[in-house]
Amino acid sequence: MFYSENGNGLNLMTMDAEQLRENAHKMVDVIADYYKNIESFPVLSQVEPGYLQKLIPDSAPVQPESLQSVLQDIETKILPGVTHWQSPNFFAYFPINGSIAGFLGEMLSAGINMMGISWITSPAATELEMIVLDWLANLLKLPNDFLSKGPGGGVIQGTASEAVLVVLLAARDRILREIGKDALGKLVVYGSDQTHSCFEKACQIVGIRPENLRLLRTETCNEYALSPESLADAISHDIATGLIPFFLCATVGTTSSTAVDPLHALGKIIKRYRIWFHVDAAYAGSACICPEYRHHLNGIEEADSFNMNCHKWFLTNFDCSALWIKDRNALIQSLSTNPEYLKNKASQGRTVIDYKDWEIPLGRRFRSLKLWMVLRLYGVEKLQSYIRNHIKLAQQFEDLVAQDTRFEIVATRTFSLVCFRLLPPNKNEEYANKLNSDLLDAVNSSGKIFISHTVLSGNYILRFVVGAPLTEERHIVAAWKLFQEASSSLLENS
Amino acid sequence: MFYSENGNGLNLMTMDAEQLRENAHKMVDVIADYYKNIESFPVLSQVEPGYLQKLIPDSAPVQPESLQSVLQDIETKILPGVTHWQSPNFFAYFPINGSIAGFLGEMLSAGINMMGISWITSPAATELEMIVLDWLANLLKLPNDFLSKGPGGGVIQGTASEAVLVVLLAARDRILREIGKDALGKLVVYGSDQTHSCFEKACQIVGIRPENLRLLRTETCNEYALSPESLADAISHDIATGLIPFFLCATVGTTSSTAVDPLHALGKIIKRYRIWFHVDAAYAGSACICPEYRHHLNGIEEADSFNMNCHKWFLTNFDCSALWIKDRNALIQSLSTNPEYLKNKASQGRTVIDYKDWEIPLGRRFRSLKLWMVLRLYGVEKLQSYIRNHIKLAQQFEDLVAQDTRFEIVATRTFSLVCFRLLPPNKNEEYANKLNSDLLDAVNSSGKIFISHTVLSGNYILRFVVGAPLTEERHIVAAWKLFQEASSSLLENS
User: Fold this and answer.
1) Option in A65, A361, A380 nearest B162 (CB)
2) Which residues form the signal peptide (chains A, B) (predicted)?
3) Of A290, A324, B79, B137, which has the maximum CB count within 10 A?
4) What is the 3-state secondary structure (H, E, C) of chain B?
């Protein structure tokens, strides 16, 4: 194979330094132009289901096509079907942060394209991950038990779903080793009705009975935080009926309203039992690098494991979910494999960490690279300013909502999420839900912003999350204007 | 935040089109230079455990550092700790393919940095994945039941470990829905002693008893393939003792020796029972796009699920593990969640696929982009030539080994893996194992090539896999010369 000089690019080699250079420079410009024009796209894709099938051939080409024609298709066929998570007008769900530093790290990792299965398969990947997660643990002021120097340590998982799954598994096996496998049906787990759905999914996977999943009811008066009393009551009741409590998932920053479960009080209760205490701070963990928000992690000393998604609000391109545990052996006992074809002296000598034994997948990318680059290229102070700026913008939005008496703020804003709704003149709750759902549809179908919703205490609530790297005050102001106009129009027509 | 013109790069913004352009162009050159110089690095990193801790500060910097200083550290501190999977002299494990097309796809996916959780969160991501996996299914001549038009379909998982886990879960829940959860302890799974270790791990995760995992013994005379007779016997025996067979994992291209389990014969046996039949072709599946290798998939009609890693030998940068199933509802029943905050009209109307319900993680990258680009930028014929070239090179290596009477080829080469060993003059088996282990250490510590090993029938065996995109005939010849020299030296000193 050789490179065609006529520029049609049809003789792309599988790998070649100069062809990679030439074509990757083109792709850089495509991506930079994407960011230059990002505000011109509808934030939420407006295509209909099945749109792409009509635009793309039924089969792969026999002969190569040119990069030019692929790039044209990306512009005309793919981008219309993309919902732009990096748009400054993306306020839905929780953010997925991309940044220049994170992107450079992804590029390098994809370029080197190596496996961090075992230490030997790329020592730098394992060692940098240990070091950088120690850095981040220190920024969060996590207890020393979570550092890699002792029996604990950090590991990058793909998502919070995988993080809670692996610790649940470690906890399940730890208790079953003591009391026997037949007790699986008696194991009980605890969370709140605000705990992320990945917890229920993890329970299903590891075989916890659905009837033994306690998603304890939260109350408006408690700001939707898990009540220590209800946890204590549930545990006592379960023990009395012969069940075996063994896992608690608390949340710092729930998905619906960023409620913060009281870690310290919860930790005190479960201390009396042998319950694995996992803390999910997937979104809000990032804020805790700022001293003024660190108190939300008070009580983390009691936890067995802690998770924060650097790909959410910490400028690290997806995926990068940081998980720390106090007892890495519990994980390893559940997840290690030792086939002959992966044996090597470093692993057999137990002088190294093999991250394959800390996670579900065997293969793993060099994900610490991008986190390391984010931390170094921005530095701690800029990362703190970044978080504070988003929280300030959310506060501005909240102030705008509060000034309009047609609206209600339905949960105290703790971080960068504002939960609010439009109140109908007639105060009919059923109608209120319909009205807010219509308002969501109206703003989202405009293509100007994208928000999502939740239900709290039976009410349909709008969620407005500030967290995209490009979001500035002008975007907040314009978004609010859009809400006001759409609301006026809906109320007029009702 | 503004951009510093003085070039120290210390005011890198979180995101900005022009800064991204400038810095990403620099990174392209770093990566292109990496490929230009890739043969100058020791293939297997020669660092000692803990090397990086001594080179990197204890904490994250408070102030930003320059890209220049990060890039210097990558050159001087990170690269020495990297094992170069893209080196043309990497012959260990199975390959992890990177290519120009795959890299461009990774860049674009990392650049757009969106989530394909549900259809609505980026319709193009879901729809392109469906289409491209249909393309690939057609290239592999998979039965129509695996196409997305019917009740089946394809999905990109991260790894083969995740692929087997999700189908095992679907199979577990399907049978437990019928016979009740209390029967979990009676469920039996089947594979061979050559089945990849991820199968055992998946069983452990979903709660299959270790004593109910049948890894049936394979024999040299069968080329280490699973014997249909031994499967039939095991199933009969298990049923007779009151156990419940429910899952078979067959392999096309085992890790140790690329053995091919006889799918058709195995399928006929399990047809009499309600056993989920999964086929793991993680490595060898790629070869089956060539008509002359397609027969290894004969019998795939009987399978319920099929998996092939495009990131192994199909030029698609890690990660991209293609999984097809006949009954997607079985997966969805095990893995779906439906929290309020993710509800949307498209999902509720059941007019779309939400891939979050086909996998463990919630978040997911736009991975179909790179596979689409690989298929389009290379085209089917070039992909077939790529596979054939590697197999031809492996054959050349095999011929070289066969010409040297000091060596033995220990398993028939089917694809691009050659299994061989050096025979000691005294024929002592224990000494033979030591000798080959020493030979492996000698070639790997030279830094010139990297190979790995396995054990077959109690013998320590060297595995030489051709599969890196840059490997040419000269690398094969040089590798063989290295083996010969190292062997002569070992035999002289013994």
Assistant:
1) A361
2) none
3) A324
4) CCCCCCCCCCCCCCCCHHHHHHHHHHHHHHHHHHHHCHHHCCCCCCCCCCCCCCCCCCCCCCCCCCHHHHHHHHHHHHHHHCCCCCCCCECCCCCCCCCHHHHHHHHHHHHHCCCCCCHHHCHHHHHHHHHHHHHHHHHCCCCHHHCCCCCCEEEEECCHHHHHHHHHHHHHHHHHHHHCHHHHHHEEEEEECCCCHHHHHHHHHHCCCHHHEEEECCCHHHCCCCCHHHHHHHHHHHHHCCCEEEEEEEEECCCCCCCECCHHHHHHHHCCCCCEEEEECCCHHHHHHCHHHHHHHCCHHHCCEEEEEHHHHCCCCCCCEEEEECCHHHHHHHHCCCCHHHCCHHHHCCCCCCHHHHCCCCCCCCCHHHHHHHHHHHHHHHHHHHHHHHHHHHHHHHHHHHHCCCEEECCCCCCCEEEEEECCCCCCHHHHHHHHHHHHHHHHHCCCCECEEEEECCEEEEEEECCCCCCCHHHHHHHHHHHHHHHHHHHHHC
